[in-house]
Write a structure and sequence with these properties.
Helices cover 49% and strands 14% of the residues. It has a single domain, classed as TIM Barrel (Alpha-Beta Barrel), CATH 3.20.20.210. The two termini are 16 Å apart. Helix 8 crosses helix 9. The protein has 328 residues and is of the alpha/beta class.
């Protein structure tokens, strides 16, 4: 994967579906245990990575970890955690005092240790980890509606809050690299909901704070914006990220025209991987590969749904391997 992340397409096409809770599902492990025990999480992710023979390993995607550590209340819905009670935005400055102890709060140590365990046990695949992007983290702490309104009513305070969020994300990214992560995937799904103007005026610089910290730590960075990010894709390309992870809504052929020297990752839809028949997945994947001329890290547009049929993932992976054989 490293050559693709550096913009050199000289090796077999990497395939890296974002497997998370799906691993707990197929191996019969309780979801709550999976995100509260680093040994269980690391073991699950290693087993799933080897079971499907994919090119990267990552912890379970859990956007509630960071806001929970900072005081937001989390509940489990069918075993999957989600924020149910946000913090009042008026108390945002109180969070500044938590920066020094951030890595010891909540379940963050669980995720840090899971990456450490994966890096010690998995030698032949890229070790990755997730951090929330500044806008998504702020939205998960204070509520997306409140943050959106703040961007209109008080742009100056909005920028200050995004800047604070970028510091938390940078701190966590640096810690993941110290634990053995070679690549950090920055999850910024809320970025798909804002305008190009807001992206450039407020989000871009704060994203680059996180990305530059990752680069300084000598790791790769992937900016992930799932959903329909067509209106902000051109803005994604001017970030300092090594690669852009995109969903099915962006045509690969169009993305390649403006991505410059950035690698692309995606763009198999999660609804397709969940609901299609294996032969449809193969056709879908091969069409995307032909359109991209193989210049893509093949992945899902977001985390693989837990109930995804195993044969669908296998067919997607097989299609990539077969295409690579004919390409090289």
């Amino acid at each position: 994967m490293a050559s693709f992340l550096s913009g050199h397409f000289i090796e077999e096409i990497p395939v890296f579906p974002l497997i998370g809770f799906h691993s707990a599902k197929i191996f019969g492990i309780d979801f709550i245990k999976a995100v509260n025990n680093s040994e269980i999480m690391a073991s699950l992710q290693q087993k799933a990575t080897e079971y499907y023979d994919i090119d990267g390993i990552v912890p379970i995607m859990d956007l509630s970890v960071e806001p929970e550590a900072l005081g937001a209340k989390v509940r489990y819905v069918e075993g999957i955690p989600a924020v149910e009670e946000f913090l009042p935005i008026e108390g945002w400055k109180n969070l500044e005092n938590k920066l020094g102890e951030y890595l010891s709060l909540g379940r963050i140590p669980v995720f840090l240790n899971s990456v450490k365990l994966m890096s010690l046990r998995v030698r032949d695949r890229m070790i990755c980890a997730y951090v929330s992007g500044p806008l998504t983290l702020a939205s998960e702490i204070f509520g997306p509606k409140e943050v959106a309104l703040l961007s209109l009513k008080n742009p100056s305070l909005y920028n200050r809050i995004l800047n604070l969020a970028s510091k938390f994300s940078s701190e966590l990214a640096r810690a993941f690299v110290e634990m053995g992560a070679e690549c950090i995937i920055i999850l910024e799904p809320i970025g798909a909901l804002i305008s190009q103007k807001t992206f450039r005026s407020s989000l871009l610089n704060n994203l680059n704070i996180v990305i530059d910290e990752i680069r300084k730590s000598k790791a790769w960075s992937i900016l992930h914006i799932c959903g329909d990010a067509r209106k902000v894709f051109s803005e994604m390309t001017v970030t300092n990220a090594n690669a852009l992870s995109i969903d099915k809504y962006i045509r690969i052929s169009e993305a390649l025209k403006i991505a410059g020297n950035k690698a692309l990752m995606g763009n198999i839809g999660t609804s397709e991987i969940l609901l299609s028949k294996p032969e449809e997945i193969r056709k879908y994947t091969l069409n995307m590969l032909r359109e991209s001329e193989g210049k893509i890290i093949v992945s899902t547009g977001c985390e693989v749904p837990p109930a995804t049929p195993q044969e669908n993932l296998r067919e997607m992976i097989k299609a990539v391997r077969d295409f690579s054989k004919n390409l090289y």
